[in-house]
Specification:
Blueprint lengths: L4 E6 L6 H13 L8 E6 L5 H7 L4 E5 L16 H7 L3 E4 L2 H6 L4 H13 L3 E6 L3 H5 L3 H13 L8 E5 L13 H18 L2 H6 L2 E3 L8 H5 L6 E4 L7 H27 L5 H7 L6 H17 L4
Parallel strand pairs: 1-2, 1-8, 2-3, 3-4, 4-5, 5-6, 6-7
Helix pairs in contact: 5-7, 7-8, 11-13
The structure holds 1,3-dihydroxyacetonephosphate.
Amino acid sequence: MGRKFFVGGNWKCNGTNDEVKKIVSTLNGVEVPSEDVVEIVVSPPFVFLPLVKSLLRSDFQTAAQNCWVRKGGAFTGEVSAEMLVNLGIPWVILGHSERRLLLNESNEFVGDKVTYALSRGLKVIACVGETLEQRESGSTMAVVSQQTKAIADQVSNWTNVVLAYEPVWAIGTGKVATPAQAQEVHSELRKCLQQNVGGEVAASTRIIYGGSVNGANCKELAAQPDIDGFLVGGASLKPEFVDIIKAATVSKTALAWNQLWCKIMSLERLSCSRVLLSLPKITDIYARKCLIQILTQIASADILI
Ligand SMILES: O=C(CO)COP(=O)(O)O
């Protein structure tokens, strides 16, 4: 099965009660691609989670921005995985660079948190990413691989994990990674999963990008073969978030179109009836759409008829 596109909105430490209601009402009113095509998860601060959950449309999900590393108890200020499950919050973001850097969360601690959250039934958006200094010294791949390995050392079932590559230098800076830079790291992360967990997990795990994603740059990023979605910060608080959701899926369609087009053009003889016969077997919605468009193109160009 293909990797379903994933768009997360990390609201970070932002919002008032009224602002949160306004954002939710905007999200509730928009027409977005179907649930089969894209998974949408918004992550407000803890205190707004019940409000957002109660007001948000049912095809969008919620995520907490953190949770405690083990069962609750005498840990002042923390929120446990059990509490999130009890509230019906399905997702949690763990290992965000703002927590790694500002609150000294180590790779091992993040690995422990991911393991515990999964064991309680939460789904996890696990973040990795290098600082500017690390990129400039050429250690990007080593850093993100170590961060991923610290999770992979403990987690073998990645069904409920989305890996988010968020270069620290791109977060909140307006300095987005180029599609090529992001694709290079995503493909390396997939290799890292292959080596440390296995080929099936590497092929099926969604690896999403975060760092200054906006309505203008999302399409090109989404068209990269190993970019399976976004974790959006600043732009997720604005109506622009909807453009990111929509543009991302449009881009994936373009990518699938190109791949199919190349495949079909590489076949020497192909009758349209053969293509038409295979249509019902194509369950991937993008591929289906693309094939229909291609057939129209072929018919009008009179290439194979
Ligand atoms: O940190 C991020 C999402 O988790 C990205 O933040 P920005 O989109 O504001 O750069």
